[in-house]
């Protein structure tokens, strides 16, 4: 027996039935409208997926966001949901890191992702808060370099090159308009 069609009919006739199942239904439950919709998948692109070495590990999703996007967290959660739905046998859990140049680039309304932000499952990183480039590892310094402009960027790039010479950290880096051989 197909139960979906039975529940469809029940909810269509009485949308408040769903809220009868909840210990704390919304005060305006009677105002809700029931719809059955088909969600067509749009193309999503995740900036980075870091797969664990074994199935018991955590997969890390990475988004690099240098422009204000007021729907970033909603889109990212959709991408993660689709990816985990299709690939859950490859890992046991997930975490996401969002790299921002500054806090001003983070979306202002974070209600939909609040629980994930509060419990650390989504971890925003603000490059301008990492500290002075001279005190950062070379790779992190290069990330901060992407936020700088003009003479400051040139000066920091020179410092990173000098520091990295002879180091085995990074052999070639191409970031935005910077092409550094180190």
What attributes characterize this protein structure?
alpha/beta; 3 domains; single chain; 182 residues; two-stranded antiparallel sheet; disordered C terminus; 6 strands
Question: Could you describe the 3D structure shown?
Answer:
By secondary structure, this protein is α/β, with parallel strands linked by helices. It folds into three domains: 1-37, no CATH class; 44-129; 131-182, no CATH class. Helices cover 32% and strands 17% of the residues. It has six helices and six strands, in the order ααββαβαβααββ. The protein has helices spanning 3-13, 17-20, 72-87, 114-118, 138-145, 150-164; strands spanning 48-50, 58-64, 93-100, 122-126, 172-175, 178-181. The protein has a four-stranded mixed β-sheet. A two-stranded antiparallel ribbon has the order 5-6. A hairpin with a 2-residue loop joins strand 5 (172-175) and strand 6. Helix 5 (138-145) runs antiparallel to helix 6 (150-164). The longest helix is centred in the middle third of the chain and has 16 residues, at 72-87.
Please give the oligomerization state of what you see: single chain
Number of strands: 6
CA gyration radius, whole angstroms: 23 Å
- Structural class by secondary-structure content: alpha/beta
End-to-end separation in angstroms reads 66 Å
Mean pLDDT comes to 85
Number of domains: 3
Strand content: 15-25%
Main sheet attributes: strand count, strand direction, barrel closure: 4 strands, mixed
Our count of helices gives 6
The percent range for helix content is 25-40%
Shape: elongated
Which regions contain 5 or more consecutive residues with pLDDT less than 50? Answer: 171-182
How do the SSEs run, as a string of H and E?
Answer: HHEEHEHEHHEE
